[in-house]
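Backbone shape codes
____________________
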Amino acid sequence: MSELPKSPAFRPLGRSDIAVSPIAWGMWRLADNGRSVAEATTLVHAALDAGINFLDTADIYGFNGTDGFGDAEALLGEVLAAEPELRDRMVLATKGGILPPLPYDQSADYLRKAIDDSLARLKVDMVDLWQIHRPDILAHPQETARVLDDAVASGKIRTIGVSNFTMAQIAALDHFLAEKLVTTQPEISPLRIDCFENGELDQAMMLSLTPMAWSPLGGGRLAAPETASDKAVAAALDTVAQAHGVSRTVAAYSWLMAHPAGIIPIIGSQQPGRIAEGAQALNVRWTRQEWYAVLVAARGVTLP
């Protein structure tokens, strides 16, 4: 049985000329447990040395409900200050628009400040991708677009993306942007398959958006499945994992990567070995029968 196409070593980020690895490393927990600059540097090297050049953070990462806002960006900034040459090896992405204790804020003044503050914490003049973390229902997309276009024009950000936006919200913002969106970042995993059937990935392909999948392992549920449905998905992944001599984690990443939209799973681990292991997903090939077996297990019913 023929295999699905292999993921390329690098792919363009949306319509841009930025080449990214087909898997990314996320820094949601980078600042946890008082991690030192040296420890954080080891993690950055683990990703880059494994061929993962796409690094994703956010200004809210590190916030514990009371303090820590910006801590993950600041820690990465210290890494880059200590080893400036690392910046040229990475495609650096961050996010903003969540403002504790408020929910979300995409007002023009706040967006401008959020972008400037992220650059200051990261100790860089520009980020390759800046994403609105969650949609602010009270913000008019035309006003938001104007701020983001200005940030591109001024050289503060190279490209624009969104996270957790609905299809209508994506379409509205993209309509007003001169610099069109290049990414969308929804939750996607073998345990969260909504976007495969609700049109999100179809829209991404239509607009040339690169989907970045957060929580690609189902928030850890794939590692320790408890429900009958989760166990069925794990078993379907294990069939391919065992055939290729890789872990279930790697099989899950590669399952997402096999989709024609070019889904980029974001590795959430803060362990060097687990980060490097993720790169093995590039070598796993799926047949249609194997791929659909995982989808059927996740749906819980046979395909029509």
